[in-house]
Amino acid sequence: MEVKMISILLLFVISCNSPNETKEKNNCMEITGKDTIWKRHTIKNDAFYQFLPITDSTYKVEWGNRVFNNVSNEVFETSGSGIFQLLDHNEMAIILEKSCGTSCNSYLVLPFHSQAKEKVFLFAIAYNMENNLVAYISENDQVFVSVENYLTRKKTDIKIESLCPAAFKGDCIDTSYFINNKYIIRWHGCNWSDSNQDILQKEIFINL
User: Fold this and answer.
1) Regarding beta strands 41-42 and 173-179, do their DSSP bridges make them parallel or antiparallel, or are they unpaired?
2) Residue boundaries of the structural domains of the chain
């Protein structure tokens, strides 16, 4: 009799801890595992975003409010660094964020208007929602950092000649941030060494 009771208890514990099953708190009926990824995320004033599964490892993003719904053109992968997470939002856009590898952070901007197109910023390093701006490390060898208005798609390129000898120019950045309409960046210059940080700074007025 004692053996039977132990077996029943073990079966109950195993069934309540199996991954990707529908469970509810305290009585095995709570949604766990991948199912929680696809739920709708509602934010202020009925605005929302939601991941739409395409395959087991890919998805699109839907977003909108009570007036419109948009679906991303781009297909994203769940493998590697996982899915996007909410970074910030206002009445103009949602910004989602995820890692894209070593020294790499990506933003996914979802503008709040009908038929809007998503915008992905690789190597993103700062944002300013008040002025709809994102700063990111440029893939252009002649440009250090670009600042772009994610609604108008206008941008300004920042060219800096003195950079530390890192293999990836983004590793030279010390700090990067916005204050109102100014973008401030501090970085290690070409004279950087273990004994000399060679910190340089630039402030750029942004009007995009």
Assistant:
1) unpaired
2) 30-122, 125-208
